[in-house]
Amino acid sequence: MSRLRLSLTLAWLLAAFAGLAHAAPYPYPLRGRLRVDVDLCTIEAPAGAEPALRSLSTRAPAILARVESDLGCQPAGRYRFVLIPPGPALDPDVRALDGAAPLWAAGFVVRGARLGAIRIAEAASYPYGTIESVFAHESSHVLLQDAVPAGLPLWFEEGVATREGRRWSMEDVLAYSGAVLADDLPSLDELSAEFHAASEERVRRAYAASFAFVGWASRDHEALIRDVVRAARNRPFAEAWRSASGGSLDEAERRWRHEALVRYRWIAALTASSTLWIALSLLAMIAGIVRRRRAHAARVEWARREPDPEADDPWEPPAQ
Predict the structure, then answer these.
(1) Which residue in 18, 76, 91, 119 could disulfide with 146, CB within 3.0 to 4.6 Å?
(2) How open is the CA angle 169-173-175, to the nearest 5 degrees?
(3) What is the Cα 262 distance to its own chain's centre?
(4) Residues of 103-122 as b/e, b for ≥16 C-beta within 10 angstroms?
(5) Which domains occur in the chain, in start order?
(6) Has this prediction a pTM greater than 0.85?
């Protein structure tokens, strides 16, 4: 009997260790929450978030594998995310965590705590789209912070994380082209501060701009992000960028801005509501002028063709 118990125990341990490489199929209670382990990532769901946990847990292994491959790094230790359900949080720990970030944030990571959160109700908001997108985005933050403990520029970290969460969309085009049209897009050095701006619109533009630059820079250099992260572990970021890309960051930013003006400004000009209404008004004015000129020409032509009532009738013989 003891041998049987020993065999079962060993089998259970082997299964448990094997399960670290996959989403655990056994959500189990933890302080009233359900929990799933995916490699070194733990995802917890308090009451009300269980359906989201079940959905995310099936996709999480593939998401983490892709993110780790794209960034070329692994987590330094176990980290966890808490899914925050819609409505007031009953769990005091979840409520405290929920208050650690602006209300509009769909996800966030508490730096240094190896802890993050995903607000289910906000997952569809910009710059995310789905819970899976938020999970990939925030997991990228954890990996980047582990890879470069000294810290990366926030614009780079957010641009990379957004790119890992999803791909460029029309919503990004509109947010980014609006900044290009207004000619108020901050430099990369200034961009990091924009993520902490009080205006949600400025934050949106910061996400769109950082996403745009990282995507542009990676267009012809697929391994750029991995190379920059690897080089930044032991040298300043500007030097890491030069080492990875073969050129200076300042020059890359200059070329990116030039292309952005050519590619995106016309989009903003066409979609800006004030510009659109001005254009429509001008078109209406021009159409009115054309109609009036045509009507005037028609009246002149009608007058020319209309017979003069005081003139002699050409069909009557002249008076004798």
Answers:
(1) 76
(2) 115
(3) 22
(4) eebbbbbeeeebbbbbbbeb
(5) 21-147 (3.40.30.160)
(6) no
